[in-house]
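DATA SHEET
Item: assembly model
Revision: 1
Owner: S.N.
Input lines:
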Amino acid sequence: MSLEAVLTRIDDDLDAALERLMSFVRIPSISTDPAYAKDCQRAADWMVADLASMGVEAEARPTQGHPMVVGHVGEGAPHLLFYGHYDVQPVDPIELWHRDPFDPAIEDTEHGKVIRGRGPADDKGQLMTFVEACRAWKAVHGAWPCKITFLFEGEEESGSPSLIPFLATNKEELSAPDMALICDTGMFDRETPAICTMLRGLLGEELVVTGPDKDLHSGSFGGAAINPARVLARIIASLHDNTGRVTVPGFYDGVSELPDEIRAQWDKLGFDADAFLGSVGLSKPAGEDGRSALEQIWARPTCEVNGIWSGYTGDGFKTVLPSKASAKISFRLVGTQDPFAIRKSFRAMVSDALPPDCTVEFKDHGAGPASVMSTERPIFEQARAALSDEWPKEAAFIGGGGSIPIAGLFKEMLELDSMLIGFGQDDDGLHSPNEKYDLRSFHKGARSWARVLDAVTR
Amino acid sequence: MSLEAVLTRIDDDLDAALERLMSFVRIPSISTDPAYAKDCQRAADWMVADLASMGVEAEARPTQGHPMVVGHVGEGAPHLLFYGHYDVQPVDPIELWHRDPFDPAIEDTEHGKVIRGRGPADDKGQLMTFVEACRAWKAVHGAWPCKITFLFEGEEESGSPSLIPFLATNKEELSAPDMALICDTGMFDRETPAICTMLRGLLGEELVVTGPDKDLHSGSFGGAAINPARVLARIIASLHDNTGRVTVPGFYDGVSELPDEIRAQWDKLGFDADAFLGSVGLSKPAGEDGRSALEQIWARPTCEVNGIWSGYTGDGFKTVLPSKASAKISFRLVGTQDPFAIRKSFRAMVSDALPPDCTVEFKDHGAGPASVMSTERPIFEQARAALSDEWPKEAAFIGGGGSIPIAGLFKEMLELDSMLIGFGQDDDGLHSPNEKYDLRSFHKGARSWARVLDAVTR
């Protein structure tokens, strides 16, 4: 009966919970842009204050970058560590937003009400589902369900540079929990909750190809001077073969074929590739030949151009022959692919491809291997049952195309297993203009966590 | 003796002439950027006022874009039309300038004093060499050497969109002259003046490749969604074969091998390809295999990437899978290459190369064929002799890699032949940061025009 009371409390408190989320989203905590450093601090302070309002003595602990918010409450087993991130992605191209990304609002859509703005889906609204579940639990019971450690990061969207040093420095404190809960993933579809048990890794690289030592007039020098934009285009074009496979030597070392039982489970999900691609204006899976779209995004590695720039990019025309051409390139990794070996091989491949008179510089934008979760632990099945009670369809163990390096770091540095439960939808527009989070995800997400807390502490 | 008096007058007036040029360069008349429209008007008004100060009643005549400055003075044959442009290139990347581009100054360099800023070489200082020669002539003689029409354009750096309508509307007025003089080219080297008798044409294209209908998270969609930056890179990489030839179908129609007599004349010039490339940090001609650097820049057509952009290009990293990828691409044309046929073929080639789910949009940034001058007219030899009198070495007929479509338009629309004489140097940094114009070019340039005016009116 007490679970019912917590769920009712969540229902009754929804408007206040939304107000809290709105004030959180209003803080433009863009971690990758130094111009927003103070806003990241404000977001950390907001978290500390919000946790304090429900009785958690948390702190915003300084790092070399943005602060870590850490707090401990409660007694008893299991000891759960809850992780989320309070930073958000940049908002550009800002002109494609139909409202100020940091002036969020509830909007009606064909799929119901949504919270529109930068960050409610990734990850402010998601992390608040857990916080709101805890708040309701405490209000109803006057006590916490078990021992809980809160850990909120402010650099997830910028490669988490401070995380490894922070985990190392606070290893004793943070390795005490039995299990980490991470709310930064999505449901399988609007009816089917999911626990993500496979996550792709991420390797981020930036390269700058330099040809002439200054920008040149393409009339005076065109034809005789090497053009680094052309060189970069050739390099990028060479990164995939005509079947969509990545050509970096050794790239597929550690990539296994999907086990038959996983493939069978995924087949049962009835993934609608046409709808998935159709939601973003596409019709055909564009990855490796002969792989389904689901396999391409959950179980296959990729190489993508995330940004490219060279020469004159403003209005009008400028007949410049550029001195430099740059690209940001990322690799999604699966299985036991070694990001450091791939970085080395990629850099060697690019360097070897340079024509005379060109040089290249590389910048490291983070490297994390793929994660595979320990689904044999009973807590996974307990959580799956609890989620199935809340939503119309049975919860599924799924893969995830994105990279949440924290799960790998928890395992590697703290020997801490992670369970990833989230309530995002495919159309949330993560990292895109007009990001939103379904109000239903926020509300039923909080209810879901209450059920999970109940199930794992019963 | 009267020529000597004009030359002396130019020498004595140099400081005042420099002051005039400085105040002209201080006007940021960047024609391609709408933010500087008022500055383009100011530059036109400055020209009108400067011409008025020497007794030329000129007007800044409105067009759909920036004004045309037109004025007529003098009597007698030949009737010369003098053309220059008062607009300048954008200044980005601004961080590479060592001073404010619109706060020009005289600086000492290893090759003597230079005027540093945006525009003294292209084309404000160059056009003022002619104006200063006329001013001195008038001051000494109290009359003009012949009938002169001044025509100064403000859109040369942005494709001259208003020029064709203006020439059409004012055809009767502007086709009266016997010959056009254009000062927007360079010397062969610091000692050797030059008349440019071959100019490459220019075709400017912008393309935007669209894949997904919005920017995507590369984790959620990477592997399954087409990436337009990769598509664009493949298209650009396909525009040249491995010998450096352009692959656009029909591109070389109208491109002839250099006649033996021209090749012999150019060989005699002793062009130092190592020094030319070395001045911009390069060592090897990067164009078509088996062609000299001089041939590559004067006599061979090219295809260059002038700008490319897609996705996230700011600091840090953003794992976006972009919706769009754009490029500005230009073709330098020679002989009788047809820019309109090449545009059509290029667009068809790009469209045919698109994978499923991608679309492309094109933007036209101007098209002009190559120009070949009528060097058999006696005025060319008269001018060549006059230039040879002013400079240490004999003047040469040379080619030009850049594109000055005005010469072709004068011929086509006004049946007016052009003679291109300029005093720029290879290291002027046209279109680049830290553009400069040699003080010697400015001074001896004005003296050169006085000699040319004397020679052709004697």
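QC remark: Residues 2-199+370-457 of chain B form a domain with the Aminopeptidase fold (CATH 3.40.630.10).
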